[in-house]
Amino acid sequence: MLLAAPAAAQGVNESIGTWRLACVQDRMTDRSTCTLLHAQPAERSTPGSPSLALEIIDRGGRLVPAVTARDLSLDNAARGLLAIAGTAQIRFPPNPMIEMPCGLEGRSLVCAPRAADAARAEQELAAADKVLVRVVATGGMGSTAEPMELPLARTRDALTRFRALVPPGSAAPDSPAVEPRELLNRFRQMFN
What we know:
This protein has a single domain (3-172, 181-190), classed as Immunoglobulin-like. It is α+β, with helices and mostly antiparallel strands. It is built from four helices and eleven strands; from the N terminus they run ββββββαβββαββαα. Strands 1, 2, 3, 4, 5, 6, 7, 8, 9, 10 and 11 form an eleven-stranded antiparallel sheet that branches.
């Protein structure tokens, strides 16, 4: 998720282990936004579907893993459909898998842990040396049977640096729960 950050964060573009931290300032509003993404895609792009990223987002003050596709357009509507009928599965071996429901946040697809799984996801992310990611869509859309394995390095350092730029409470509020019918209506409006 793009997060509001202090003005000092503008222009940050750093590699920290397997993570990329970037902060940019909107010249119209003077607000800075920061993202912390894994250097490799969680799922590679295909024609009509942009790649999916493993991203660290703030959920209720916790830094948790999420699978995202940012700034969707009509050309990549297939990714937006995951918001209606998709989940991401994430696993930090040897721990059990965590299911992350997908939804639309503005024009972005975000698959994030449920509130009940957030503490566990945050803790396992910080300690892991690898992660398995798979996106599952009903009707056979999207994913392959084999999960993508991504190495993790210096995650604690990346989380510390991100938190220094984006303090707790500066994140956009969580989106309220939305019924599938409402998601479909929002999806239609997004591309009209």
